[in-house]
Structures are given as C-alpha cells and as structure tokens.
Amino acid sequence: EQTAKAEGAASASIATIAGVGALATAAAVLIALALIRSIVVPLRVLGAALGDIASGEGDLTRRLDGSRHDEFGQVARDFNAFAEKIAGSVGAVRAQAQELAGGAEKINETSRTIANDASEQAATLDWIRRVAADAQLVTSVCTGAAILARAGLLKGRRATTHFGSHHWLAS
Fold first, then answer.
1. pLDDT in tens, the chain (171 residues)
2. Contact at 8 Å (CB) between 159 and 169?
3. 3-class secondary structure for 79-145?
4. 50: closest CA among 41, 63, 36?
5. Who contacts 73 (Cβ-Cβ below 8 Å, separation ≥6)?
C-alpha cells in the first residue's frame, strides 16, 4: 500500500514536472519567436531601404523610422542624418551644375558675338580696300587711320592719328 502510494505520488510529480516543463518550453518558444520577430522585422525594413539606395534607384528623400529606443532606432536616426547630408550635397552639386551650364551658355553667346563682329570687321575692311582701289584720295578722321592701316592701305605712306591712338597705328 505504501508502495502504491509512493508510486502514485511519483507519477503525480512526474506529470507535474512534465506539465511545467511543457509550459516552460512553450513560453520559451513564444519568447524566442517574439524576440526574433522584434529583430528580424526592423532589420528587413532597414535592409530594404539600404538595398534600394545601393541599387541606384534610391530616393534620397526617404527616411527610416527612428522612433524606436534601441539599436535599430539609432541606426535609423544615423541613416537619416547621413541621407540628409547626401541630399544636401546632391542639391549643391545640382545648383553648381546649373550655374556652370548658365556660364557655358553665356560663353557660347559671347563667342558667337565675337565671331559675328570679326566677320563684320573683315567685311568692312574688304569694302574699304575695294573702294580705296578706285579712289583718288582716301582720308579718315581721328582713329580711322588705324582702320586704314588694318586694311593695308597705309603701307609706305605717312599717316597720323590722335596721340592717344598712336600704338594702334604703329601695330
């Protein structure tokens, strides 16, 4: 009878231990799953955002949720600060590129103007040469002597001009 009681008590203890063990195992599994989920989900979000930027399709205005008070929140806040700096740099480069393009257009316009002016000057000098070939007397006023010299009409001839323009005539 005592043996039967002892065996019954032992069986009850084993059943209790097995039940408590099963509950503890189930609780441990649930805690592990919750812990894994709390790590994996934010890590996937972070990985997707970084992967998007790394692939070249990144939107530098995109920000991560930095409201968490753990390491993932800190990584998100650091990433957001980095993305803000990069976006600022890209904006500055864009502004510089637009400024350079505007400068290049002004240079191009100035080059066209200079080319047109040179063409007009050449045409004027040609006209002066043609007219001078048929003229008995060719005269000019003030710095006009420089134009006649440029047209080649003063070679071997004496000429004068305004004293402030002698260097033109000499060249």
1. 778 888 888 888 898 999 999 999 999 999 999 988 888 888 888 888 778 777 766 677 778 878 888 888 898 899 889 888 988 898 899 999 999 999 999 999 999 999 999 999 899 889 988 988 888 888 887 778 888 888 888 888 877 777 776 676 566
2. yes
3. HHHHHHHHHHHHHHHHHHHHHHHHHHHHHHHHHHHHHHHHHHHHHHHHHHHHHHHHCCCCCCCCCHH
4. 63
5. 65, 66, 67
Tokens of 67: 């409201």
Distance between CA atoms of 160 and 49, rounded to whole angstroms? 79
| In contact, 107 and 114? CB cutoff 8 Å | no
Given phi > 0 = left and psi -120 to 50 = alpha, else beta, which region is 138?
beta
Report pTM. Answer: 0.49
Q: Yes or no: say if 76 and 49 are a contact pair by the CB < 8 Å rule.
A: no
What are the structure tokens assigned to 135, written together?
Answer: 């003229």
Query: Letter for the amino acid at 96?
Result: Q
The whole-angstrom separation of Cα 2 and Cα 75 is 66
